[in-house]
Amino acid sequence: MSGPRIYFAGVNTQHLCSAFAGHHVLESYADGGGRKLLERYRPTFASVALDCGAYSEMTTGKPIDLAAYIDFCLEHAAGYSWVASLDVIGGGPEENVKNWQSMLAAGVEAIPTFHQGEPFSLLSDYCAAAKRIGLGFKRPIQNARPWLSECFARIPAGFPVHGWAMTAYTDFPFDSVDSRTWFFEMRALMSVEGQGADALRCLTPGELLEIVIKKYERLPLRERWEGKAAQLPLLEAV
Fold first, then answer.
1. Max alpha carbon distance in the chain (Å)?
2. One-character DSSP codes across 67-111
3. How far is CA 59 from CA 30, 47, 54, 62, 204, in A?
4. d(CA 177, CA 6)
5. In the chain, fewer beta carbons within 10 Å around the N or the C end?
6. Interior angle at CA 224, CA 219 and CA 228, nearest 5
7. CA dist 134 to 3, 25, 101, 114, 174, Å?
8. What distance in Å separates the CA atoms of residue 66 and residue 72, rounded to the nearest whole number?
9. What are phi and psi of 80, to 5 degrees?
10. In this structure, are residues 51 and 28 in contact, taking their beta carbons and an 8 Å threshold?
């Protein structure tokens, strides 16, 4: 067991794309401007997955057009390992299921996301009908680990699951996770004080980023050594 595949989110908003050569990158459809920056580097990544931009929609209030997103996926899906269904984080399960079914009907094999607070019957439906699913927290995040434990107790063993913004939960049996935490960790290294600060000040942002990326490369082995494992509850027979 090597741990989940880690996708670095937000790479297409930074001029440090070369540091992610050989790594997995999550691209956001909402960031059309950053996509142009990414073009030169796309062939250097191990793989790229496509996020629909739901979080950006929630934080900016700018809606994602479903028809335009479907057209983009139909044209470029072959360039991605997988694409996310268009979901609205605060929109409710009915809207999200409708969007997912519309994408499937159009010929886009998008992955649906099960959100915290939605009925677990929907999680079972997704697992029965999709080849991969995503899990997403409600904001602000609360009861994260109990909810993830409940989810994985219901998800068939070995079923591919992606954790949106969940690199802090790699001890759960995810197939993949993503986050933009790398950016804040790199920025934190720029402001370290005390012993070692002089050494870090001699490094460029790209070199500091290499240190952060090594953390994610080594994280699964470290967690196995520390004995971290999700405690998944057994479901009672119904």
1. 61
2. HHHHHHHHHHGGGSS-BB----TTT-HHHHHHHHHHHHHTT--PB
3. 11, 27, 9, 8, 31
4. 5
5. C
6. 95
7. 17, 16, 15, 6, 10
8. 10
9. -120, 150
10. yes
**Distance (Å, rounded) from C-alpha 238 to C-alpha 121?**
13
Angle at 140 between CA 185 and CA 180, to 5 degrees: 25
- pTM (2 d.p.): 0.87
Tokens found for residue 223: 């967690």
The owner of tokens 């993503």 is 178
Residue environment code for 132-156, b if the CB has 16+ CB neighbours within 10 A, otherwise e: bbbbbbeeeeeeeeebbbbbbeebe
Question: Mean pLDDT score of the chain, rounded to an integer?
Answer: 87
Q: What angle separates helix 205-225 from helix 181-190, to the nearest 10 degrees?
A: 120
> In the chain, what percentage of residues exceed pLDDT 70?
88
The per-residue DSSP string of 185-216 comes to HHHHHHT--STTHHHHHTS-HHHHHHHHHHHH
Structure confidence at residue 220 as a pLDDT band (50, 70, 90): confident
Collapse the DSSP code of 136 into the 3-class scheme (helix H, G, I; strand E, B; otherwise coil) and give the result: strand
